[in-house]
Amino acid sequence: MNRSKFRGAIGQAAIVVACLAAAPGAALAQQPATKPGPAGEIEPRAIDALKTMGAYLRTLKTFTVRSDTTIDEVLDTGQKVQFGGTVEYRVRAPNHLRAEVDSDRKQRQFFYDGKTMTVYGPRNKYYASVPASGTIGELVQAAEQKHGLELPLSDLFLWGTDKAGLDDIKSAIYIGPARVAGIDTDHYAYRQQDVDWQLWIERGKTPLPRKMVITTTQEASQPQYVALLKWDLAPKLDDAVFKFVPPKDAKRIAFAPAPQGQK
User: Which of 17, 34, 105, 249 is least surrounded by CB atoms within 10 angstroms?
Assistant: First the structure.
C-alpha cells in the first residue's frame, strides 16, 4: 500500500470448506475473530492474502469497479470533517483505462487508450493530454512521477506486481470473518510507517478487495479514507469508452511537471 495513493484518493481469502459453502452465514457466526497479535507481528496468512488477491487481480482482463468513498480532512483549527464521493474505473487490460471521480470537492475524468493519457475537469472544462504507453500499472506510476498526478485507488493496478510494496509492511494480522454488503470476506489489518490500513477480501474463487480503510497515523486526529468496492467482471467495453473526445467548449492546457521533491 503506497501512502501517496491515499492522499490521492486502495491476498488469499481463506479457503471455504464444505460446511461454509452449504451455510455461509452460520459458519461465519461460529468463527470468533482472531485476537490481534503484538505490534510488529507479521502473520503469514495475512501476507499470503495480499499475494493471492494481487495475483487474481492481474488475471482480470475486462472489468469495472465502483467505489463509494469517504475521506476525512483536518481543518486548520484541528477539527476533522468528512467528504463523500465515488470513484469508478472501467478497465480493459493491459493498457486501456477510464476513471471518473465525483466527490463533494471535485470532478475528474481520466482516459488512457494505450497511446494517450488525458485528464478532464467537467466543471471547469479544462483538459490536458500527454503521450503515454505501457501497462496501466506503469501508467499510474509514470503519471505520479512525471506529473504529480495520483489516481485514486491506483494500488488496484500494482497488487500482484513487484511494485506492490509488501516489503514496507511492518505488521500484518488476520482479524476474522466479516460480511461486506452481504458478501463473505476475511478482514485483515496492516501497518506501515505513518499508515494503518485494513482490507476485507472476498472469500472463495474470486478474492476481490471489497472494502478498504486507510488511517494516517502521523496526524494526531488520524484521518481516514474508506472505500466500499463493487465489481463487474463481465462488462462490454469498446474502444470508444477509453478515447477522449473534447467537448466543443473545452480548453486544452499543458500538464505541469511533478514538484521537484516528488520525482
Answer: 249
